[in-house]
Design brief:
Layout: E1 6-7, H1 11-22, H2 30-39, H3 45-53, H4 56-75, E2 80-81, H5 85-94, E3 100-102, H6 107-117, E4 125-127, H7 141-150, E5 160-163, H8 166-175, E6 179-183, H9 190-195, E7 200-202, H10 208-216
Parallel strand pairs: 3-4, 5-6, 6-7
Antiparallel strand pairs: 1-2
Length: 217
């Protein structure tokens, strides 16, 4: 969601810096940690914290602090939809497609974002890592969970995955999706997206309905 359908203006990094401070990370270590956070955008946040903080208790504490900090920023009106994102989802649904929004955030944060944008009823299904076994991206679990839960298509090759990170691309490729579209409104650039398996690179998710309509012809 963040970077693909939601413009958060760097709130992930701000929330991480706040979380690191709250759990007592050394100030000199935070810039290096932020580099890792940027490189792994799209991954389940608890997985990121396990890598950075090691001990499970500290990783869980950092994850909780991150979710609280991000939630505070969301509640402060600091997020907005990517221009044309809502319209793109509505057009996809008008084309008869089933749309699922996935995230590396926890459910509480995902729900806060949806509420802040008024998107609670925008799509048929929303998924976070815990809804699909807990591993999150770059594993294909959320994509395959969407496939199984919606029953919208006959085979995985009919799935289209769109995202702004390398891990979005990897999860799409690993799921067997026929279209894996990178968008340039978020964390990673065209080279990173293509290197990790993007079949298409779009300026934004607003271009996705046109891409899929063209693929149907």
């Amino acid at each position: 969601m963040a970077g693909t359908t939601v413009a958060d203006g760097g709130l992930v990094e701000q929330a991480f810096a706040a979380a690191a401070q709250r759990v007592g990370a050394e100030p000199d270590a935070v810039p290096g940690m932020l580099d890792y956070v940027r490189a792994t955008m799209g991954e389940s946040k608890i997985s990121v914290f396990r890598h950075l903080f090691g001990a499970e208790a500290k990783a869980q504490a950092a994850n909780t602090a991150f979710e609280e900090a991000y939630g505070e920023l969301v509640d402060g009106g600091r997020i907005a939809p990517i221009p044309g994102a809502r319209e793109a989802v509505e057009e996809l649904r008008a084309q008869g497609r089933t749309v699922v929004l996935t995230t590396g955030f926890a459910r509480t944060t995902q729900d806060a974002i949806l509420a802040a944008l008024g998107w609670q009823d925008l799509v048929e299904l929303t998924l976070c890592p815990a809804d699909a076994g807990g591993r999150g991206r770059p594993y294909p679990d959320m994509v395959l969970a969407a496939f199984l839960r919606t029953g919208a298509v006959d085979g995985v090759q009919q799935i289209a995955v769109a995202g702004d990170t390398s891990y979005d691309m990897l999860s799409g490729v690993r799921s067997g999706a026929g279209i894996v579209a990178g968008v340039l409104t978020g964390a990673h650039d065209k080279r990173q997206l293509e290197t990790h398996g993007a079949t298409h690179v779009l300026g934004s998710v607003a271009e996705l309905p046109g891409l899929l309509a063209g693929a149907d012809r």
